[in-house]
Amino acid sequence: MSGEENRKMNSLSLTARRGIIVFALIAAVGMGACVFRVLYLSVFGAEKYREKAENQQLSVTSVEANRGTIYDSNMNILAQSASVWLVYVNPSRVTDDTVGSDGKVKQGNKNLVVNGLASILGVDAEKLKTEITERSKYGYYKVKGKVELAQRNELLSYIKEYKLGNVIFMDPDTKRYYPNSELASTLMGFTGTDGNGLFGLEYYYDDVLTGTNGRIITAKNGVQSEMPNSHEETYEPSEGVNLVLAIDSEIQTILQDALKTALKETNAKNVYGIVTETKTGAVLAEANLPDYDPNSPYDVLYPELIEYFKENGTDEQKADPEGAARSEQWINKSFSAFYHPGSVYKVFLVSGALEEGVITPETTYNCTGTIQAAGRTIKDYYTTGHGVETPSKLLINSCNCFSVFVGQKMGTELYYKYFDAFGFTEKTGVDSSGDMKPTAGITYHDPEDSFTASDLASASFGQSISVTPLQIVTAVSAIGNGGKLMRPYVVKKQTDKNGNTVKETTPVVRRQVISESTASTVAYYMSLVVKDGTGKNAYVPGYKVAGKTGTSEKLNRADKAYIASFSGFAPYDDPDISVVIIIDEPQGANYSGGVIAAPVAGEVFEKVLKYRGVAPVYSDDELAAMTVSTPNVVGSTVEDAKKTLEADGYTVRVIGSGENVISQSPEEGKATPVNGFVAVYTDSGTSAEKVKVPDFTGMTVSEANRVAVSSGLNVKISGSASESAGVAAYKQDKEKDTEVDIGTVVTVYFRTTSGVHD
C-alpha cells in the first residue's frame, strides 16, 4: 500500500472516530436529558403531574348543600331548599343508526335519548340533537337543571326501560321554594340560579344560610365514562343555618290584604306598611306593593307598573319599561324609600320642644290660617285659621302655622338635635338589606352645612326633609315606649338543622330620646288625634289608638303628586304594636293621609290586636253602639223564639212550617249589630235561603243597618260608627251581588271625609 493510500485510510479512520465520538456525545446528552426529565417528573414535578393525571382520571361532582330554612315566628316555613336533579348525557355514548355490510340496520340510541329527554323535560329536541352531535367526542353535556321529583322519576323509568343508564345521568341538586308565594316577598328576597342570595334576607344572610357543598369523586376514562370496578368517594354536604324571623305570617297576611285593597282603591303608584312590636323593635310584618312571587321573580305581577314606566319613566326606563318594573318590584321600599313625612313629623317637633321647655302643655298660639317665615307666607290647610290652640290642638288639628311658630322658637340647632336623636340622620340598624343611610344636604338639613330659616319653616311640618318608613315607625315607637329608641330587627334567632339555637337576638335600646314624662304627654296628644282630630279614621272601638296623619307634596314635579301616610301605636297607654301606612301618589280627589291612610291603619290595628290577644276596653258609648251576641233559640217553639229575639230588637224571619226551631242564622254567639236580623228554620228538609249582598258604598251607619236588615243580612261596623256628617261606608268584605246565606254578617268599613284632610 502506498503512502498516499495510508494517509487516506488514516484520514477516514480519524473521521469515523470523530463521528463516533460526536454520536456518543449526542447520545450521552440525549440520555442525560431523558434521565434529567424522568428525575424532574418523578421528583420535582411529581405533585403537579400527579394532580393533572388525577384530574383526567377522576370526575368530581359537586353536591349542592341545602340553604338554611327560613321560618316565621310560629315556625311556619317561608323559604326552603328541596332536592331536585341535574340531568346530563355522555355524548360519546350516543350512537346513530348504522347499516351493516349485510344491509341490516343496527339501531342507535340517539333518537331514544333526544325524544325521551325532550318529551319528559320539555327541552327543544332539535337543539338537543344538534348539541349532542357537535359534542360527540366529549363525555358531558348538561341538558337541564332543577328537575323536579316527578320528572326525575319519569326519566328514571324511561332510562330503565330503554337501557340508557350509560348515556343519561342525574346528579342531586337543590332548589329554593317559597311556599307562600308573594307573602313578605320584598323582605325575603330570592336566590339566583347559582343558589346565592340576590335580594332581601336571602342576600343579607347569604353567608349564614349557605351551607358547605358535598362532593362525589368517581374514576372516569378518557371520555368521562365510569370505569368498571372504579372507586367512589362521597363527602356529604353540610346544611346552612336556619333563620327564625320575628315576622308572623298571620299579621303579614293582614297587612298585605289591607295594602292590596288600598292599592286598588287609590290607584296609587306604591303602597307600603310596617307593623312592629312597640317595646322591642321586632318587625312583625312588612310589605310594599306592587310586589312579586320569589318563585318566579322575573315575572311582573302588576302590569300597571309597566304602564307607569311607559308614561312616567326616564328615557332609559321608557325604552325598557318591563325591565324597570321588574327592578322596581324587588325593592323593599318599606325599609329604603325616602319620602317627605309631612305632618307626621309634628309629633317629633312637639316632643323636642316640650323636652327642651321651648313650649309647655299650656302654651297658646292663635292660628289665623297663615304665618310669615323667612320672607314667605305659609298657609294652613284650614285657611280661615284654627283660632287659639295649645300643643295638643296643634296635633289634633295638624296646624302648620303653629308648627312653624314652634320651629322658629326652637331654631335650627335644637330642631336638628331631635331630628338626629329620633334617628333620622342614621341607618336604623335593622338586620336586612335596604337599610339606607341618610345624606346631609339631601335627605336632611345640617346646621354645620346649610340650614336656613326658610328650610326650618318647611321642615317644621315635615316638607323639606326625607325619611324612610322604617325610621318613622321606629321613631313613633320611641314615643310609645317611654322615649326609648329601639333597634328594629327581623331575625329572632338562628338555629342549626337539629333546632338548636346558634344565635339569638335581644332587643337593643339605641338611646333615650326624650323623657318618659314627655313621651307620655305626646302619646296622649296622639290618642286625641285619633279620637277627635285628623286621625279619627284610624279609630278602633275598645282600643285606644294613638297616631298622626300626614300629607306631603312631592317637590320638583311638573304635576301634583302626593304622599298620604299615618303612623301610630295602640293601646296608647300600654302599646303593643306600632304601624306605619304610606300611600305613594294616590289618584283621585282623596289624597290626604287622614282620608285614605288612616282607615288602612285602623283595619290593621283592629285585626292584629285581636289576633295577638290584646283585650279591648270599651267605653260606655262604645258598649252602647257595639254589636251583641246572638241568643240561642234552637229547640224553642217558633212563638217563644220570636218573643226572645224581638225583645232584643231583632227582626225575625221564620222559614218553614214546623212548630219548633231546628236551626238559626246567625248561629248562637255570632256577633250581630243591635237591632239586627235572625232567620229561624223549622223544617229539617229546608235548605238555607240565599240572598244577594247590597252595595253599601256611600251609606251612613244607620242606612247600612236598615238596608241590611231589609235584605235579610247583618252589618258589622268597622271604623267610625258615628252618625256625624261625612261618615260613610267605603268598602265591604263581601262584594255586592254575592249570594250568601240569609242572616250572614257583612263587615262594612266606614270613614269620614270631614276634618281629616291631612
Structural features, described:
There is one protein chain. With 758 residues, the protein is of the alpha+beta class. The strands form 11 sheets. Strands 2, 3, 6, 7, 10, 18 and 19 form a 7-stranded mixed beta sheet that branches. A 5-stranded antiparallel beta sheet has the order 12-11-23-22-21, sandwiched between helices. The radius of gyration is 38 Å and the shape is globular. The model has no long low-confidence stretch (mean pLDDT 89).
The gyration radius over C-alpha positions equals 38 Å
Secondary structure tally: strands: 33
Mean pLDDT: 89
Oligomeric description of these chains? single chain
In terms of per-residue confidence, which ranges show pLDDT below 50 for 5 or more consecutive residues? none
Global structural class: alpha+beta
> How far from one another are the termini?
136 Å
Which helices and strands, and how do they pair?
Elements (H helix, E strand, L loop, with lengths): L2 H42 L1 H12 E6 L6 E2 L5 E13 L8 E2 L5 E2 L3 H12 L3 H10 L6 E7 L1 H13 L6 E10 L7 H4 L11 H5 L1 H4 L4 E6 L12 E4 L6 E4 L3 H18 L3 E8 L5 E7 L13 H10 L2 H5 L1 H10 L2 H4 L9 H11 L8 E3 L2 E4 L2 E4 L7 E3 L1 H7 L2 H22 L31 H7 L9 H12 L3 E3 L4 E5 L5 E4 L4 E4 L3 H17 L13 E8 L8 E9 L6 E8 L8 H19 L8 H6 L2 E2 L8 H10 L3 E5 L7 E3 L5 E2 L4 E5 L8 E3 L8 H10 L3 E6 L7 E6 L6 E3 L3 E8 L6
Parallel strand pairs: 2-10, 25-28, 30-33
Antiparallel strand pairs: 1-8, 2-3, 3-6, 3-7, 4-5, 8-9, 10-18, 11-12, 11-23, 13-16, 14-15, 17-20, 18-19, 21-22, 22-23, 24-27, 26-28, 29-32, 31-33
Helix pairs in contact: 3-4, 3-5, 9-20, 10-12, 14-16, 14-19, 15-19, 16-17
